Amino acid sequence: MSEEGFENDESDYQTLPRARVNQRQRGLGWFLFGGWKVLCGSCCDCLAHICRRKKELKARTVWLGCPEKCEEKFPKNTIKNQKYNIVTFVPGVLYQQFKFFLNLYFLVVACSQFVPSLKIGYLYTYWAPLVNALQLLFCFITIKNVSSRNEKLYTEHNQNVPLFFSSFFFAGACFIRTDQLDGETDWKLKVAVGCTQRLPADLFSISAYVYAQRPQLDIHSFEGNFTREDADPQIHESLSIENTLWASTVVASGTVIGVVIYTGKETRSVLNTSYAKNKVGLLDLELNRLTKALFLAQVVLSVVMVALQGFVGPWFRNLFRFVVLFSYIIPISLRVNLDMGKSAYGWMIMKDENIPGTVVRTSTIPEELGRLVYLLTDKTGTLTQNEMIFKRLHLGTVSYGTDTMDEIQSHIVQSYAQPALNSPKVRKSVSSRIHEAVKAIALCHNVTPVYESHTSVNGETETAEADQDFSDDNRTYQASSPDEVALVRWTESVGLTLVNRDLTSLQLKTPSGQILSFYILQIFPFTSESKRMGIIVREESTGDITFYMKGADVAMASIVQYNDWLEEECGNMAREGLRTLVVAKKSLSEEQYQDFENRYNQAKLSIHDRTLKVAAVVESLEREMELLCLTGVEDQLQADVRPTLELLRNAGIKIWMLTGDKLETATCIAKSSHLVSRNQDIHVFRPVSNRGEAHLELNAFRRKHDCALVISGDSLEVCLRYYEHEFVELACQCPAVVCCRCSPTQKAQIVRLLQQHTANRTCAIGDGGNDVSMIQAADCGIGIEGKEGKQASLAADFSITQFKHIGRLLMVHGRNSYKRSAALGQFVMHRGMIISTMQAVFSSIFFFASVPLYQGFLMVGYATIYTMFPVFSLVLDQDVKPEMALLYPELYKDLTKGRSLSFKTFLIWVLISVYQGGILMYGALVLFESEFVHVVAISFTALILTELLMVALTIRTWHWLMVVAEFFSFGCYLASLAFLNEYFDLSFITTWPFLWKVSAITLVSCLPLYIIKYLKRKFSPPSYSKLSS
């Protein structure tokens, strides 16, 4: 079907209504309800852009010991990772806080008290809470706002440097750790420039220079040339990533002398640094909407008051005075209490002994753990252990598994016990084919054996590498890939051991103890683009030159000679959950290699398109290679992955697995981990490349019901290009989704799609550097500190050590954080609404006068020492025990509906506040005697008692600290009565009439609510109370 025909055949597809973006008129309403924030943000961004004008990054020539020859000035070698400086700190923090409606509201109200005609009460009653909140905020940000510096030239063990030319380890090489740069924990081998390896320590004694490309973001590539002028003829050598050490990497072993090429802001680590978005929790957004509703109610109430006055006199001034008078309807303590509560939740999470090692790296979104609908997880290292075990060797006609490895070992022993017969006319025996396969696996890699150093009697460290005894007891293998280490360990287990390696050679030990030496002529590292790696070696004893290569089946299928089994066996191994590698070889003559080396060296010296030219030369060798074997390595599942995924699924959380692995392996892991149940249908989305194919495949998928979806990254990209809404709608209906061959960018894109199209909260979990973008894009990011390093853990909002901990993190701590914050937020608003109701009643009775009911310390004490501790003790409350929450994960579904904090619950609290505020004020006015001061004493004391009793009514599970907080606050109030003679008549408050009047009013305001709560729990109990009983 043509695309034109397809355009007219689209009516059969059920398309979703697309969102329409209307152009809003920018008037006064737009400015008041958010337009001011847009304008301020635009102005700040413009000023920041002007202040941070970046100069153009250029290539440079760095002379050794001759800085006067450098024509251009480069940045100072200082790296500052602080968010603010001395100039931007105060305005930056203030803008970030006052861009929220709640904080801006209180700033405007506090500033209005400097106008004499609008002043109500004392200034400190408005400014003290605001200043205290800002002081706490500034102190917290100051602690986090630290800087670091990085200046190195001579580097030793556990230090770092951007580029080096000479070292004293492994004849011009050293090992580095890059876990803080790319998240990989394995050591990486770095080599010095060849012509500088035997120079004295003083590099300035030679006349040479380095030409380096302009600073770039890519940390996995580098192009440059090294030229030595004092040699005859001049020496020119190409520089690559193997000759460089970036900032933020650590020299793991050896000593380095180098030349700094990039400094300060031009280093790779700084160029790749980006600030993650400031995540705002859904509960904070809901509370922000409620405060806007309260503000609207406050304005309406003020207008009613002025209208009842008849709009006489300066009514507009009176209107503003009423707005200020009712400002406590939106309490400033709301933000302070919530922030303190979030910090308390984080502390509780980190102190939970059932999830040891958990770290909370943000104090703004713990409630998000209780609102999640989608969980997007990585596979390798997250669901699996990233601990590779060799499981299968396939030679085409015969396959060996874990139970037949002893046969391979016997073949290896036999092949090295007798001389090999090299006869091209005779078909190779199984023994010789096994020998060649194992030998290729033992040679084709980037693994280096490292021998642990041991300390002598005098305390000096002796390196075992120099001993040359190649002891098996303290040998460990280091490589950038755990797959390679697994392969080398397997060859050791069958008798062929890698015992030594340097820049130019490696040695293997046979079962009989004989050492086989090979010269390393060339190495072609693995890249994500090529999906393969190769090595050219020359055997010392025979002089034979052999080119070995291994890689993914998709990359090797077109390189090896024709065969009829590779594709089928790769699919079989993938269905077993094994990671496959194809191993091949090609014998080279001396003339063939010399021709290749000349072309290869010439391509490496190119400044322009070096990568393409080098790849073209290497590809000239990758033709008609002899297929040796197919290997299968298993990545074992993490502990308790299956019950954890089942727990999350029962909780109503939809799980999507995003991985860069092949489709078959991803599907197998999804089944073995029970992400997809055994009896559940799986729809494998066929590869599509255009709009027509995507349309047909989506129609086929739409007819399926209750089946998991497996789709590749390429097909996903096509679907999102033409049918974004339709695809997301269909995928969201699936019980599970597996996206394979996903790039890090695609992972983050999928997260954003779910956020945009579903409006549900998303969580991303991963353990590698390639998961960082997904973690930062999600509403809640969780990093696992695993074998791939700490980059994901450091970039996440929450860090855990095992995947199984996510169950308790969500079911227990997510539930508690959300429930507690919802109760705390609504109670703090109730505390403000009740006193505003009393103020409204008071003003309406006394001829609508804009006079405050309570002044000075009474207002400050009401929001702090008198009620603060009991109200904040709500962060200790829990409706369900942790064991019950884990036993019945279905309870989590209610949290995602947001019923604990909604307009319905908010209106209930409004009605409670209006009822209690009216009872307290009218009761005090009816029962007071001759003096007005008695009204204040009766109503305020009854108000404090009512708030303490309401806290007790709200609590579902008592904690001993709650009891202490209740009695402590009441004791503070009683003790302060002796000093409040300015507001109270001390002779009256010690009389019996005062006590019975306060008790009567308090009883009327609280008893009906207690009765209603009892009846509701008896006749309409919540689901969790049914389970508890």
Describe the structure.
Residues 455-476 are annotated as: Disordered. The active site is at 378 (4-aspartylphosphate intermediate). With 1029 residues, the protein is of the alpha+beta class. The protein folds into 4 domains: 173-272, no CATH class; 329-355 and 808-1026, no CATH class; 374-385 and 637-807, Rossmann fold; 388-413 and 431-449 and 474-634, Calcium-transporting ATPase, cytoplasmic domain N (3-Layer(aba) Sandwich). Helix content is 45%, strand content 16%. It is built from 36 helices and 32 strands. Strands 11-32-31-30-12-26-29-28-27 form a 9-stranded mixed beta sheet, sandwiched between helices. A 9-stranded antiparallel beta sheet has the order 14-13-25-24-23-22-21-20-19. A 4-stranded antiparallel beta sheet has the order 1-6-7-8, with no helix packed on it. Strand 16 (454-455) and strand 17 form a beta hairpin. Helix 20 packs across helix 21 (713-722). The longest helix is centred in the C-terminal third of the chain and has 41 residues, at 805-845. The protein is elongated and about 120 Å long.
